[in-house]
């Protein structure tokens, strides 16, 4: 399948190789028992909640314990699939992880790319790694491994406080 990294002005994977990006995220998901489909469903759930709610009721609000909505992008126009599928996307939603401080922009295309093409973008505002997504954005208990952020278990972070994580240090413990 032909991939046009330049179908977006900000590119989809920077200067990386497509096969290496997909292989790395696939490996990470196997490590923690996660899936591209679960990531896509999570992206869609957040996006649909925001689009279906008056803006004044979502800006600065928590979607849930993991994810806060920062704002909406309305001016960028439509984005087509870089693999040539007949679908387009708009309506960016800006989010931040309450756990890790990672910012991530979501839209229907980021969900489509994850589900249909196993692609998580890189090196732009839509970019994230698979484990990084699980750490910052997935509900507690959604994978089989225990994820740590700087030695602290994600599920210990419920009692408040925003953790600014250093992702250079990655710890995954398996039960
Ligand atoms: Zn596609």
Spell out the helices and strands N to C: HHEEEEEHHEEE
Evaluate the radius of gyration: 16 Å
Number of strands: 8
Shape label: globular
Mean pLDDT: 83
| Distance between the ends | 38 Å
Number of domains as seen in the coordinates: 1
Strand order of the largest sheet: 1-4-5
Assembly status: single chain
Report low-confidence residues grouped into runs of 5 or more.
153-175
- Which distinct ligands sit in these coordinates? zinc ion
**Helicity, in percent?**
25-40%
Helix segment tally? 4
Task: Summarize the biggest pleated sheet.
Answer: 3 strands, antiparallel
Q: Strand percentage, roughly?
A: 15-25%
Structural class estimated from helices and strands: alpha+beta
Outline of this structure?
With 175 residues, the protein is α+β, with helices and mostly antiparallel strands.
Q: What's the layout of helices and strands?
A:
Elements: H1 18-32, H2 36-51, E1 67-73, E2 79-80, E3 88-89, E4 92-97, E5 103-106, H3 108-117, H4 130-137, E6 145-149, E7 152-153, E8 170-174
Antiparallel strand pairs: 1-4, 2-3, 4-5, 6-7, 6-8
Bound molecules: zinc ion.
Zinc ion binds next to helix 3.
Explain how this protein is built.
The protein has one domain. It is built from 4 helices and 8 strands. The protein starts with 17 loop residues before the first helix and ends with a strand. It has helices at residues 18-32, 36-51, 108-117, 130-137, and strands at 67-73, 79-80, 88-89, 92-97, 103-106, 145-149, 152-153, 170-174. It has 175 residues and is of the alpha+beta class. It has a 3-stranded antiparallel beta sheet. It has a 3-stranded antiparallel beta sheet with strand order 7-6-8, with helices on one face. A two-stranded antiparallel ribbon has the order 2-3. The model is unreliable at 153-175 (pLDDT under 50). Strand 6 and strand 7 (152-153) form a beta hairpin. Residues 81, 83, 85, 112, 116-117 line the site of zinc ion.
């Amino acid at each position: 399948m032909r991939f046009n990294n330049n179908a977006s002005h900000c590119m989809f994977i920077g200067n990386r190789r497509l096969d290496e990006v997909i292989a790395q995220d696939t490996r990470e998901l196997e490590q923690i028992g996660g899936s591209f489909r679960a990531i896509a469903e999570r992206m869609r759930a957040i996006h649909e909640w925001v689009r279906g709610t008056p803006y004044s009721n979502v800006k600065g609000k928590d979607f849930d314990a993991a994810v806060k909505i920062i704002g909406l992008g309305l001016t960028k126009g439509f984005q087509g699939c870089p693999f040539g599928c007949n679908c387009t996307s708009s309506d960016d939603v800006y989010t931040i992880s309450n756990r890790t401080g990672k910012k991530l922009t979501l839209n229907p295309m980021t969900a489509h790319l994850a589900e249909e093409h196993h692609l998580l973008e890189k090196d732009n505002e839509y970019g994230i790694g698979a484990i990084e997504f699980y750490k910052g954005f997935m509900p507690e208990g959604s994978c089989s491994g225990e994820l740590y952020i700087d030695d602290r278990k994600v599920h210990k972070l419920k009692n408040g406080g925003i953790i600014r994580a250093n992702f250079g240090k990655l710890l995954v413990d398996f039960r």
